Amino acid sequence: MAPLTAFRFPTEETKFPFANRGLDFFGPFYIEDKQGKIEKLYELTFKCLVTRAVHLETCPDLNTDTFLNAYRRFTCRRCQPILLYSDKVKIFVGASEELKKSVKALDKDKIYKALAAVKTTWKFNPPYGPHFGGVRKRLIQSAKRTLLIFLGSMRLSIDIFETIMVEVEAILNSRHLTNVADQPENEEPLTPNHFLIQRPYSSLPPGNFGDQQPASFKNWKHVQQLVNHVWRRLIKEYLPTLLKRRKWTDNNQPPLNLGDVVWVLKDLTPRGIWPLGRVVETSPGRDGEVRVAKVKTAYGSFVRPVAGLARVFSS
After folding, report:
1. What angle do CA 120, 121, 127 make, to 5 degrees?
2. What does the pLDDT average to over 266-290?
3. Distance CA 117, CA 273 (A)
4. Who is most buried in 5, 95, 127, 314, counting CB within 10 A?
5. Cβ-proximal residues to 235 (8 Å cutoff; 6+ apart), any chain
Protein backbone atom coordinates (compact mmCIF):
# COMPACT_ATOMS: atom_id res chain seq x y z
CA MET A 1 0.00 0.00 0.00
CA ALA A 2 1.31 3.43 -0.95
CA PRO A 3 2.03 6.04 1.76
CA LEU A 4 -0.49 8.78 2.47
CA THR A 5 -0.24 11.79 0.17
CA ALA A 6 0.93 15.15 1.47
CA PHE A 7 -2.53 16.79 1.40
CA ARG A 8 -3.74 14.36 4.09
CA PHE A 9 -1.49 16.04 6.67
CA PRO A 10 -1.91 19.55 8.14
CA THR A 11 0.68 22.24 7.49
CA GLU A 12 1.03 25.82 8.71
CA GLU A 13 -1.22 26.95 5.83
CA THR A 14 -3.73 24.09 6.10
CA LYS A 15 -4.08 23.67 9.87
CA PHE A 16 -7.77 24.68 9.86
CA PRO A 17 -10.66 22.34 8.88
CA PHE A 18 -11.65 22.18 5.21
CA ALA A 19 -8.43 23.81 4.03
CA ASN A 20 -7.92 20.73 1.84
CA ARG A 21 -11.29 19.53 0.69
CA GLY A 22 -12.88 17.17 -1.81
CA LEU A 23 -16.11 17.77 -3.74
CA ASP A 24 -18.77 15.43 -5.06
CA PHE A 25 -22.48 15.39 -5.97
CA PHE A 26 -25.04 12.69 -5.31
CA GLY A 27 -28.76 12.35 -5.93
CA PRO A 28 -31.33 13.05 -7.22
CA PHE A 29 -33.91 13.35 -4.46
CA TYR A 30 -37.51 14.44 -4.97
CA ILE A 31 -39.45 17.04 -3.02
CA GLU A 32 -43.00 18.27 -3.28
CA ASP A 33 -43.74 21.99 -3.13
CA LYS A 34 -46.90 23.61 -1.74
CA GLN A 35 -48.62 23.37 -5.13
CA GLY A 36 -47.96 19.62 -5.30
CA LYS A 37 -45.30 19.93 -7.98
CA ILE A 38 -42.43 17.41 -7.83
CA GLU A 39 -38.92 18.86 -8.10
CA LYS A 40 -35.45 17.36 -8.06
CA LEU A 41 -32.71 18.17 -5.56
CA TYR A 42 -29.05 17.15 -5.34
CA GLU A 43 -26.60 17.10 -2.46
CA LEU A 44 -23.13 18.61 -2.77
CA THR A 45 -20.64 17.10 -0.32
CA PHE A 46 -17.56 18.85 1.01
CA LYS A 47 -15.09 16.47 2.68
CA CYS A 48 -12.13 17.71 4.71
CA LEU A 49 -9.17 15.58 3.64
CA VAL A 50 -7.30 16.14 6.95
CA THR A 51 -9.95 16.01 9.72
CA ARG A 52 -12.43 13.82 7.74
CA ALA A 53 -15.25 16.26 8.52
CA VAL A 54 -18.26 16.42 6.18
CA HIS A 55 -20.50 19.28 5.06
CA LEU A 56 -23.64 18.91 2.90
CA GLU A 57 -25.19 21.61 0.72
CA THR A 58 -28.53 21.26 -1.11
CA CYS A 59 -28.63 22.25 -4.79
CA PRO A 60 -31.72 22.45 -7.05
CA ASP A 61 -29.88 21.34 -10.20
CA LEU A 62 -26.49 20.42 -11.66
CA ASN A 63 -25.09 23.49 -13.38
CA THR A 64 -22.11 25.72 -12.81
CA ASP A 65 -24.00 28.72 -11.43
CA THR A 66 -25.82 26.59 -8.84
CA PHE A 67 -22.57 24.95 -7.78
CA LEU A 68 -20.79 28.30 -7.41
CA ASN A 69 -23.59 29.63 -5.20
CA ALA A 70 -23.34 26.52 -2.97
CA TYR A 71 -19.55 26.83 -3.00
CA ARG A 72 -19.78 30.45 -1.84
CA ARG A 73 -22.27 29.59 0.91
CA PHE A 74 -19.91 27.01 2.28
CA THR A 75 -16.77 29.14 1.86
CA CYS A 76 -18.34 32.08 3.69
CA ARG A 77 -19.26 29.83 6.63
CA ARG A 78 -16.00 27.89 6.85
CA CYS A 79 -12.99 29.22 4.96
CA GLN A 80 -11.43 29.67 1.58
CA PRO A 81 -9.77 26.38 0.60
CA ILE A 82 -6.10 25.90 -0.19
CA LEU A 83 -6.61 22.73 -2.23
CA LEU A 84 -9.72 21.41 -3.98
CA TYR A 85 -10.01 17.88 -5.34
CA SER A 86 -12.82 16.62 -7.56
CA ASP A 87 -13.66 14.47 -10.56
CA LYS A 88 -13.01 16.00 -13.95
CA VAL A 89 -16.63 16.59 -14.93
CA LYS A 90 -18.17 19.47 -16.82
CA ILE A 91 -19.70 21.28 -13.85
CA PHE A 92 -16.45 21.35 -11.85
CA VAL A 93 -14.26 22.23 -14.83
CA GLY A 94 -16.58 25.11 -15.74
CA ALA A 95 -16.61 26.36 -12.14
CA SER A 96 -12.80 26.25 -12.03
CA GLU A 97 -12.56 28.41 -15.14
CA GLU A 98 -15.09 30.88 -13.76
CA LEU A 99 -13.16 31.23 -10.51
CA LYS A 100 -9.87 31.75 -12.38
CA LYS A 101 -11.43 34.59 -14.37
CA SER A 102 -12.79 36.18 -11.20
CA VAL A 103 -9.42 35.98 -9.44
CA LYS A 104 -7.66 37.60 -12.41
CA ALA A 105 -10.14 40.47 -12.36
CA LEU A 106 -9.70 40.80 -8.59
CA ASP A 107 -5.92 40.96 -8.85
CA LYS A 108 -6.17 44.16 -10.91
CA ASP A 109 -7.44 45.99 -7.84
CA LYS A 110 -4.48 46.98 -5.66
CA ILE A 111 -6.46 46.83 -2.40
CA TYR A 112 -7.79 43.30 -3.00
CA LYS A 113 -4.46 42.14 -4.39
CA ALA A 114 -2.75 43.10 -1.13
CA LEU A 115 -5.38 41.28 0.95
CA ALA A 116 -5.66 38.15 -1.20
CA ALA A 117 -3.04 36.11 0.63
CA VAL A 118 -4.87 32.79 0.16
CA LYS A 119 -4.82 31.16 -3.27
CA THR A 120 -6.88 28.12 -4.15
CA THR A 121 -5.47 25.30 -6.28
CA TRP A 122 -8.03 23.02 -7.95
CA LYS A 123 -6.86 19.53 -8.89
CA PHE A 124 -8.87 17.02 -10.91
CA ASN A 125 -8.83 13.25 -11.04
CA PRO A 126 -7.93 11.76 -14.43
CA PRO A 127 -10.93 11.29 -16.77
CA TYR A 128 -12.77 8.01 -16.07
CA GLY A 129 -10.78 7.65 -12.86
CA PRO A 130 -13.27 8.12 -10.00
CA HIS A 131 -11.34 5.61 -7.87
CA PHE A 132 -8.64 8.27 -7.45
CA GLY A 133 -11.00 10.03 -5.03
CA GLY A 134 -11.31 7.14 -2.60
CA VAL A 135 -10.41 9.16 0.50
CA ARG A 136 -13.30 11.57 0.00
CA LYS A 137 -15.80 9.04 -1.37
CA ARG A 138 -15.38 6.09 0.96
CA LEU A 139 -17.37 7.47 3.87
CA ILE A 140 -19.96 9.23 1.71
CA GLN A 141 -20.51 6.00 -0.23
CA SER A 142 -22.35 4.36 2.66
CA ALA A 143 -24.32 7.50 3.57
CA LYS A 144 -25.20 8.14 -0.08
CA ARG A 145 -26.44 4.59 -0.60
CA THR A 146 -28.50 4.77 2.59
CA LEU A 147 -30.08 8.12 1.70
CA LEU A 148 -30.84 7.17 -1.90
CA ILE A 149 -32.43 3.86 -0.91
CA PHE A 150 -34.47 5.29 1.95
CA LEU A 151 -35.34 8.79 0.67
CA GLY A 152 -35.06 8.32 -3.09
CA SER A 153 -38.71 7.41 -3.58
CA MET A 154 -40.16 9.72 -0.90
CA ARG A 155 -41.87 13.03 -1.67
CA LEU A 156 -40.84 15.31 1.17
CA SER A 157 -41.15 19.05 1.66
CA ILE A 158 -38.01 21.16 1.33
CA ASP A 159 -38.10 21.92 5.07
CA ILE A 160 -38.14 18.23 6.05
CA PHE A 161 -35.52 17.29 3.45
CA GLU A 162 -33.01 19.96 4.48
CA THR A 163 -33.46 19.11 8.18
CA ILE A 164 -32.78 15.44 7.48
CA MET A 165 -29.60 16.30 5.57
CA VAL A 166 -28.28 18.48 8.39
CA GLU A 167 -29.07 15.72 10.90
CA VAL A 168 -27.13 13.22 8.76
CA GLU A 169 -24.22 15.67 8.55
CA ALA A 170 -24.17 15.87 12.36
CA ILE A 171 -24.18 12.06 12.62
CA LEU A 172 -21.24 11.71 10.23
CA ASN A 173 -19.23 14.37 12.06
CA SER A 174 -19.78 12.64 15.41
CA ARG A 175 -18.18 9.36 14.32
CA HIS A 176 -14.97 8.34 16.08
CA LEU A 177 -11.62 8.72 14.34
CA THR A 178 -9.30 7.28 17.00
CA ASN A 179 -8.90 7.09 20.76
CA VAL A 180 -6.94 9.70 22.70
CA ALA A 181 -6.92 8.00 26.09
CA ASP A 182 -6.03 4.63 27.57
CA GLN A 183 -9.54 4.18 28.97
CA PRO A 184 -12.45 4.82 26.54
CA GLU A 185 -14.85 5.32 29.47
CA ASN A 186 -12.79 8.23 30.85
CA GLU A 187 -12.40 10.38 27.77
CA GLU A 188 -14.29 10.84 24.50
CA PRO A 189 -12.54 9.54 21.37
CA LEU A 190 -11.45 12.05 18.75
CA THR A 191 -14.18 13.00 16.25
CA PRO A 192 -14.44 15.53 13.38
CA ASN A 193 -16.63 17.66 15.67
CA HIS A 194 -13.65 18.21 17.96
CA PHE A 195 -12.03 20.15 15.11
CA LEU A 196 -15.22 21.97 14.12
CA ILE A 197 -16.92 22.85 17.42
CA GLN A 198 -14.51 21.49 20.07
CA ARG A 199 -17.17 19.04 21.27
CA PRO A 200 -17.84 15.37 20.44
CA TYR A 201 -21.55 15.78 19.58
CA SER A 202 -23.09 18.64 17.68
CA SER A 203 -26.66 17.69 18.63
CA LEU A 204 -28.17 14.71 20.45
CA PRO A 205 -31.70 13.52 19.52
CA PRO A 206 -34.45 15.71 21.06
CA GLY A 207 -36.36 12.63 22.17
CA ASN A 208 -37.15 8.99 21.50
CA PHE A 209 -40.01 8.83 19.01
CA GLY A 210 -41.00 5.23 18.28
CA ASP A 211 -42.39 3.92 15.01
CA GLN A 212 -45.72 3.11 16.66
CA GLN A 213 -46.61 6.80 16.80
CA PRO A 214 -48.44 8.24 13.76
CA ALA A 215 -46.09 9.98 11.37
CA SER A 216 -48.41 12.96 10.82
CA PHE A 217 -48.85 14.16 14.43
CA LYS A 218 -46.02 16.72 14.24
CA ASN A 219 -43.77 17.61 11.35
CA TRP A 220 -40.63 17.95 13.44
CA LYS A 221 -41.25 14.61 15.18
CA HIS A 222 -41.82 13.03 11.78
CA VAL A 223 -38.38 14.29 10.78
CA GLN A 224 -36.84 12.64 13.83
CA GLN A 225 -38.51 9.33 12.95
CA LEU A 226 -37.08 9.50 9.44
CA VAL A 227 -33.59 10.32 10.75
CA ASN A 228 -33.81 7.34 13.11
CA HIS A 229 -34.57 5.11 10.12
CA VAL A 230 -31.58 6.58 8.25
CA TRP A 231 -29.35 5.98 11.29
CA ARG A 232 -30.38 2.34 11.62
CA ARG A 233 -29.75 1.70 7.95
CA LEU A 234 -26.44 3.55 8.05
CA ILE A 235 -25.31 1.33 10.93
CA LYS A 236 -26.12 -1.75 8.85
CA GLU A 237 -24.37 -0.32 5.77
CA TYR A 238 -21.28 1.35 7.25
CA LEU A 239 -20.14 -0.53 10.34
CA PRO A 240 -19.90 -3.97 8.69
CA THR A 241 -17.53 -2.52 6.07
CA LEU A 242 -15.02 -1.95 8.87
CA LEU A 243 -14.89 -5.70 9.54
CA LYS A 244 -12.58 -7.54 7.15
CA ARG A 245 -13.97 -10.94 6.25
CA ARG A 246 -11.33 -13.40 5.13
CA LYS A 247 -11.42 -17.05 4.15
CA TRP A 248 -11.01 -19.49 7.00
CA THR A 249 -7.78 -20.72 5.36
CA ASP A 250 -6.22 -17.24 5.56
CA ASN A 251 -4.33 -16.91 8.84
CA ASN A 252 -2.55 -13.66 7.99
CA GLN A 253 -5.06 -11.52 9.88
CA PRO A 254 -3.73 -10.84 13.41
CA PRO A 255 -6.11 -11.88 16.22
CA LEU A 256 -7.63 -9.44 18.68
CA ASN A 257 -5.29 -8.68 21.56
CA LEU A 258 -5.77 -7.16 24.99
CA GLY A 259 -5.94 -3.38 24.72
CA ASP A 260 -7.18 -3.24 21.12
CA VAL A 261 -9.81 -0.55 20.47
CA VAL A 262 -12.80 -1.91 18.54
CA TRP A 263 -16.19 -0.90 17.17
CA VAL A 264 -19.00 -2.89 18.75
CA LEU A 265 -21.19 -3.74 15.76
CA LYS A 266 -24.89 -3.95 16.61
CA ASP A 267 -28.15 -2.79 15.08
CA LEU A 268 -29.88 -1.26 18.11
CA THR A 269 -27.29 1.43 18.89
CA PRO A 270 -28.96 4.76 19.89
CA ARG A 271 -28.70 7.48 17.29
CA GLY A 272 -25.45 9.42 17.35
CA ILE A 273 -23.74 6.91 19.67
CA TRP A 274 -20.84 5.17 17.96
CA PRO A 275 -20.03 2.15 20.17
CA LEU A 276 -16.28 2.11 20.83
CA GLY A 277 -14.59 -0.08 23.43
CA ARG A 278 -11.35 -1.75 24.50
CA VAL A 279 -10.70 -5.48 24.59
CA VAL A 280 -10.03 -6.49 28.21
CA GLU A 281 -10.29 -10.27 27.88
CA THR A 282 -10.12 -12.84 25.07
CA SER A 283 -11.35 -16.45 24.96
CA PRO A 284 -9.36 -18.62 22.51
CA GLY A 285 -10.92 -21.83 21.24
CA ARG A 286 -9.36 -25.30 21.23
CA ASP A 287 -7.42 -24.42 18.08
CA GLY A 288 -6.00 -21.27 19.67
CA GLU A 289 -8.09 -18.88 17.55
CA VAL A 290 -9.81 -16.01 19.38
CA ARG A 291 -13.53 -16.09 18.65
CA VAL A 292 -14.98 -14.37 21.74
CA ALA A 293 -13.79 -11.24 23.54
CA LYS A 294 -14.88 -9.13 26.48
CA VAL A 295 -15.07 -5.43 25.64
CA LYS A 296 -15.15 -2.54 28.09
CA THR A 297 -17.01 0.57 26.91
CA ALA A 298 -18.29 3.78 28.46
CA TYR A 299 -21.66 2.03 28.90
CA GLY A 300 -20.43 -1.16 30.60
CA SER A 301 -18.61 -4.38 29.74
CA PHE A 302 -19.94 -6.84 27.15
CA VAL A 303 -18.99 -10.26 25.83
CA ARG A 304 -19.19 -10.32 22.04
CA PRO A 305 -18.12 -12.66 19.23
CA VAL A 306 -15.13 -11.50 17.21
CA ALA A 307 -17.41 -11.39 14.15
CA GLY A 308 -19.23 -8.47 15.82
CA LEU A 309 -16.09 -6.44 16.57
CA ALA A 310 -14.10 -4.32 14.13
CA ARG A 311 -10.62 -3.28 15.20
CA VAL A 312 -9.87 0.43 14.70
CA PHE A 313 -6.72 0.77 16.80
CA SER A 314 -4.15 -1.82 17.98
CA SER A 315 -2.55 -1.73 21.38
Report:
1. 140
2. 77
3. 41
4. 95
5. 266, 267, 269
